């Protein structure tokens, strides 16, 4: 994973660095003890829950427990194929949101980074960045609350509209506008932060390339097209792959917060379906089955996308 | 760039855009900044406004004409909100401390390729980035562990963030190896090396990771929604969800009103919102400074 482990010993699993001989290995044994508490936490809260997926194959009843519930075979998975309305609605909404987010949310930080990058004054650049990074550090509860406070009936926008006799604009709680609302919240919260990687990549572009392009008669647009954008390509590929792994997650916290206001019809997605069916409606087995399939699809998508990236000569998230 | 027009500053790199384009971009960036700043400002203003002004405006105000701390007084004098503030501060402080200890030691344990068990442990960590455990299985685990309604259910599951550990690890690995080896030859043990060499040299990275943990503990709400059934144990974010997002009525139980009428609900909601944002805004400049140093970027790029 070039993103994470450029310095990791991919190339030297057996052949340790020069002064890590046998003695070194023994001496380094104590390092394992340092890793232990953290690893135990990871194992307990990231890996042990995987065992909980067995209830996807059970008629799980909370008061009987995992150990005594009866087996159901693949019955719980039937919901995926038998045209269950609730499930289909969640699936359709999820896919719609996914398309909307890839089209509108993904390119936003690239455009913003290009705009910030072309600012000449370093001071102004810094102020703009400071302001635009801030929303990333707010919780979804706060972001949703801010949007409601701004756009609800008594919110700033409608207070302004009423004061000028322009009527009111009903946004919050309007199912037709819900997906647009979600998208604008994501853009508001994370576009600024998203520029950070692109700005870093832009700052590494060799400025001589622009100069030679200019000598060759390339105008500003062609410089952007032939120098700037290629410099961002592998980063874009990497981020697209990572997004793909999360393809079926379209903002769980954000949606679950606003669901009571707009109803399930426009807001139910796979993640909320799992939550609502399992924890609220008590249909544990079915909800675990959907969650399991969703997780597996995510892993397959990441690995598949990575293969495709390799095919096109990009590095992807790990090297071959 | 050969011949820049004479009235422009000569900067190396791309040919500057024409003036209208640059003006358009400046306006765009200004609008973006205002879209972020105005809501904050207006919410702070509303939390300070008095009843009369809020009622006249029919909701939100842009500037408090007769600023009053009535709303803050009402929610901070005991009651659910003050309780939630305590819970949030406690969970954040304890959680961040424990998270830092376990993440720093884990990163240190992984900082020497070739040491015993290095590879499997690293793989365990990295693969945890590829998938999330899922709501239902996580809930079952917490239930089996008997942590429902326990503050530990808010602290333990998010104590080790693989990404943060990778950041620390790559920082530890950039410490010159000779330094560590020299200390070893002088007879220092791994623990002493961590304390007296690795940690002092990585203060900046540890500070950033600590701030990241603190922000995520402060902001966490979903675990509390899943695992905390008693409203007396709710953290701030859950209170915010109930009384601001879901618009539950704020009554005497939530804001200890001393007989007098409560301030308008808009002001109370705005005050709750301000209180849950203030810690973030306070630590933000520190985060900012380190981000500028490129600690995170350097780490992200390996």
Structure description:
- The complex is a heterodimer of chains A (320) and B (302).
- Chain A has 15 helices and 2 strands.
- With 320 residues, chain A is mainly alpha-helical.
- Chain A has a single domain, classed as MetI-like fold, CATH 1.10.3720.
- The longest helix of chain A has 28 residues, at 284-311.
- Chain B has 302 residues and is mainly α.
- Chain B is globular.
- Chain B is built from 15 helices and no strands.
- The two termini of chain B are 33 Å apart.
- In chain B, α3 crosses α14 and α4 (80-109) packs antiparallel against α11 (203-219).
Instruction: Tell me the CATH architecture of chain A.
Output: Orthogonal Bundle
Query: Which segments of chain B are poorly predicted (pLDDT under 50) over 5 or more consecutive residues?
Result: 1-10, 295-302
- Low-pLDDT stretches of chain A are 1-25
Number of domains of chain B: 2
Distance between the termini of chain B: 33 Å
Strand content of chain B: under 5%
What structural class do you assign from the helix and strand content of chain B? mainly alpha
- Which sequence of strands runs across the widest sheet of chain A? 1-2
Estimate the global geometry of chain B from the Cα principal axes: globular
Organism (chain A): Nonomuraea antimicrobica
Membrane topology (chain A): Multi-pass membrane protein
Domain ABC transmembrane type-1 (chain A): 91-305
Family (chain A): Belongs to the binding-protein-dependent transport system permease family.
Characteristic terms for this protein:
heterodimer, A: 320 residues, mainly alpha, MetI-like fold, two-stranded antiparallel sheet, 2 strands, 66% helix, 1% strand, disordered N terminus, B: 302 residues, 2 domains, 15 helices, 0% strand, disordered C terminus
Question: What's this, in brief?
Answer:
The complex is a heterodimer of chains A (320) and B (302). Chain A is mainly alpha-helical. Chain A contains 15 helices and 2 strands.
């Amino acid at each position: 994973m070039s993103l994470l482990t450029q310095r990791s010993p991919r190339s030297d699993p057996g052949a340790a660095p020069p002064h890590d001989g046998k003695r070194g290995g023994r001496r380094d044994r104590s390092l394992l003890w340092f890793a232990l508490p953290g690893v135990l936490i990871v194992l307990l809260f990231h890996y042990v829950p995987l065992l909980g997926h067995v209830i996807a194959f059970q008629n799980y009843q909370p008061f009987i427990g995992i150990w005594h519930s009866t087996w159901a075979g693949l019955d719980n998975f039937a919901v995926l194929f038998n045209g269950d309305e609730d499930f289909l609605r969640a699936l359709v909404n999820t896919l719609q949101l996914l398309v909307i987010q890839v089209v509108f949310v993904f390119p936003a930080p690239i455009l913003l980074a290009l705009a910030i990058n072309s600012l000449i004054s370093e001071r102004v650049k810094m102020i703009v960045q400071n302001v635009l990074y801030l929303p990333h550090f707010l919780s979804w509860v706060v972001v949703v609350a801010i949007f409601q406070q701004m756009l609800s009936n008594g919110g700033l926008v409608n207070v302004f509209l009423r004061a000028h006799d322009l009527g009111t604009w009903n946004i919050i709680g309007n199912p037709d506008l819900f997906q647009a609302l979600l998208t604008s919240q994501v853009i508001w919260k994370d576009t600024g932060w998203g520029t950070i990687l692109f700005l870093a990549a832009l700052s590494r572009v060799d400025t001589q390339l622009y100069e030679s392009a200019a000598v060759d008669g390339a105008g500003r647009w062609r410089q952007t097209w032939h120098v700037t954008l290629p410099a961002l390509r592998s980063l874009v590929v990497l981020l697209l792959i990572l997004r793909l792994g999360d393809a079926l997650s379209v903002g769980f916290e954000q949606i679950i917060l606003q669901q009571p206001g707009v109803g399930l019809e426009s807001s139910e997605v796979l993640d909320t379906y799992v939550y609502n069916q399992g924890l609220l409606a008590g249909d544990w087995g079915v909800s675990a089955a959907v969650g399991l399939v969703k997780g597996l699809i995510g892993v397959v998508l990441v690995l598949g996308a990575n293969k495709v990236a390799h095919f096109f000569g990009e590095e992807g998230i790990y090297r071959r | 760039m050969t011949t820049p027009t004479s009235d422009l500053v000569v900067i190396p790199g791309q040919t500057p855009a024409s003036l209208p384009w640059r003006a358009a971009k400046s306006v765009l960036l200004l609008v973006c900044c205002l879209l972020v700043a105005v809501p904050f400002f207006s919410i702070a203003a509303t939390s300070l406004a008095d009843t009369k002004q809020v009622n006249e405006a029919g909701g939100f105000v842009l500037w408090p004409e007769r600023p009053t701390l009535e709303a803050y007084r009402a929610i901070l004098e005991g009651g659910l909100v003050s309780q939630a503030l305590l819970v949030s501060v406690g969970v954040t402080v304890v959680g961040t401390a424990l998270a830092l200890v376990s993440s720093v030691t884990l990163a240190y344990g992984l900082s020497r390729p070739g040491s015993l068990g290095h590879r499997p442990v690293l793989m365990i960590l990295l693969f945890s980035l590829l998938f999330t455990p899922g709501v239902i299985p996580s809930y079952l685990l917490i239930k089996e562990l008997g942590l429902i309604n326990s503050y530990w259910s808010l602290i333990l599951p998010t104590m080790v963030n693989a990404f943060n550990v990778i950041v620390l690890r790559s920082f530890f690995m950039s410490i010159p190896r000779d330094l560590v080896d020299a200390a070893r030859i002088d007879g220092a043990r791994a623990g002493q090396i961590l304390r007296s060499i690795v940690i002092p040299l990585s203060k900046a990275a540890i500070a950033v990771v600590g701030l990241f943990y603190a922000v995520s503990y402060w902001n966490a709400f979903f675990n509390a929604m899943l695992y905390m059934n008693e409203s007396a144990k709710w953290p701030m974010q859950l209170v915010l969800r109930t009384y601001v997002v879901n618009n539950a009525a704020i009554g005497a139980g939530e804001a200890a009103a001393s007989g007098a009428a409560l301030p308008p609900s808009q002001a109370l909601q705005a005050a709750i919102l301000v209180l849950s944002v203030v810690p973030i805004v306070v630590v933000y400049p520190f985060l900012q400074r380190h981000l500028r140093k490129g600690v995170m970027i350097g780490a992200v790029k390996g």
